[in-house]
Amino acid sequence: MSDPRPLHRLFDLTWSDYVQGTVITMESEMDLSLKQQFLDLVLIRKSSEPIPKRMPDGFEDLAAHNLVTFKSHQETLDGWALCELVGHYVNYRKQVSLSLQDLLPESDFRLFAVCARYPQKLAQQVALKAVKEGVYEMQLVTMLVRIIVLNQLPCEEHNSMLLLFSAREDLLRYAREHYRPHSPETSTLLYELFKTYSEDPTMSTKLQEFVRQSIDQLLQSLPPEELRKHLSPEERLKGLSADDVVKGLPPEILETLARQLKANGPAPKQP
Questions:
Q1: pTM
Q2: Residue 13 neighbours by CB under 8 Å, 6+ apart
Q3: Closest CA to 10 of 51, 40, 37, 55
Q4: The domain containing residue 127 runs over which residues?
Q5: Measuring CA to CA, which residue among 156, 153, 206 is closest to residue 177?
Q6: Mind listing the pLDDT tens digit for each residue in 44-73?
Q7: Is residue 213 part of a domain?
Q8: Contact (Cβ atoms closer than 8 angstroms) between residue 136 and residue 122
Q9: 65-71 and 135-140 strand pairing
């Protein structure tokens, strides 16, 4: 795959879809330095008015600025990843404040780490306080970090967006059946997500088969104009007659073909 971090890109896009129509805006893959170091996600709460939907577990109490690092099933959430998150927070806080002498208050910021698997090694090094099922907290310097473990989140509708990234068959099935689109592009987004899973060599055979079935079902549910985007030229023409193909050509293409045929003259008669 050309994109070296496809799951991260899809994680950002899914959040963008989820917060549509709320007081939350989103910045993804924010470059915070001269040497590129990307912060996965920033959720910016534009006002204190209530969010008109239930947020996923762990994200209920958002501050004005919420910095999120994401570790897929291919990655490990460890101490270094959290140190990077704090480094991003320090840099980001400087950039959004009026000056280094007039920094926004620390209470305007929250740190989140989302990971597919429970960070076993990290739990052996630092104390992780269980907040609720699948949600933990830890103290890092002066900041509290909220850790959300996707494989442990309960199957509830408000968690379905995050469960799309759990890489566990039962949770993926629940997410696929319960995630409700918030934009017209969501079906395509889900297709790209499952396509990424299907091409992942680390996935089990059973899970890959489930993903292939999910792709088939998603394709069947797509409207015709969206479906055509995911078909090869050969698949698009399959079952069509020559007349059907000609009818589907844009007028400008038909005009160009007509001019070329006229310039070339009539086809020679066969002996």
A1: 0.69
A2: 28, 189
A3: 40
A4: 6-166
A5: 156
A6: 999 989 888 899 999 999 999 999 999 988
A7: no
A8: no
A9: unpaired
